Amino acid sequence: MNGSEHQVLPEGVQRVKAALQAAGHAHKPVMLDGAARTAQEAADSLGVQLGQIAKSVIFKRKEDGVAVLVVTSGDRRVDEKKVAARVGKLGRADADFVKAHTGFSIGGVSPVAHLHPPLTLLDQDLWRFDEIWAAAGHPHGVFRLSPQDLPGLTGASAADVVQDSTDTPVKTALVASPPAQEAT
């Protein structure tokens, strides 16, 4: 992690910082020395388990174009069928859609401070950990939280939204679009 407290934070990280402060969250975003575009990169940089990375995956609901955010554990893969059963048919969210709806680029999508509030689902598997880390609006930015903080910060609740561990190999990333493009 970068020790410089006086650096100018990127705009997305400033938005996340303001949202966290407004919510009374105890931890500020930190900037990592290296990029954390994937859950594995973030886990390696922070020295935590892959599952402790809360990756934000964005989908596009087909019926109305609403952004659907699934915050999932870094060692899990979103099950699109389970998500669609809760919110309706899903489509691919390309980089332009993600940026326009969240205000963040793929690789740094935070679970908070979106330009347009998404429909949000939280992976219940995040509750396996006492401490997790999420993207903070930039590929080098992250913030610490507990899974119990997520409902208050996002207005969402925990749900079964991931594939069973025997379904497919885990593909990790912090924020992205439907499966082929999962990234944080």
Short description, anyone?
This protein has 5 helices and 9 strands; from the N terminus they run αβαββαβαβββαββ.
What would your notes on this structure say?
The protein is an alpha/beta fold and 184 residues long. The protein has a single domain, classed as YbaK/aminoacyl-tRNA synthetase-associated domain (YbaK protein, Alpha-Beta Complex). The protein is 22% helix and 21% strand. Strands 1, 2, 3, 4, 5, 6, 7, 8 and 9 form a nine-stranded mixed β-sheet that branches. A hairpin with a 5-residue loop joins strand 6 (132-135) and strand 7 (141-145). The longest helix is centred in the N-terminal third of the chain and has 12 residues, at 11-22. The protein starts with 10 loop residues before the first helix and ends in an 8-residue tail after the last strand.
Task: List the defining traits of the structure above.
5 helices, 184 residues, alpha/beta, disordered C terminus, 9-stranded mixed beta sheet, 22% helix, YbaK protein
Write the layout of secondary structure elements.
Blueprint: H1 11-22, E1 30-31, H2 39-46, E2 53-61, E3 67-73, H3 80-87, E4 90-91, H4 95-102, E5 119-123, E6 132-135, E7 141-145, H5 150-154, E8 158-159, E9 175-176
Parallel strand pairs: 2-6, 2-9, 3-5, 5-8
Antiparallel strand pairs: 1-7, 2-3, 2-4, 6-7
Largest sheet: 9 strands, mixed
Look up the CATH topology.
YbaK protein
**CATH superfamily placement:** YbaK/aminoacyl-tRNA synthetase-associated domain
- What helical percentage do the residues reach? 10-25%
Under the CATH scheme, the architecture is: Alpha-Beta Complex
Number of strands: 9
Number of domains: 1
Note the gap between the termini: 18 Å
Overall 3D shape: globular
Count the DSSP helices. 5
Low-confidence stretches: 167-184
CATH class equals Alpha Beta
Strand content: 15-25%
The overall average pLDDT, rounded, is 88
- Helix and strand content put the structural class at alpha/beta
Instruction: Determine Rg (CA atoms, Å).
Output: 15 Å
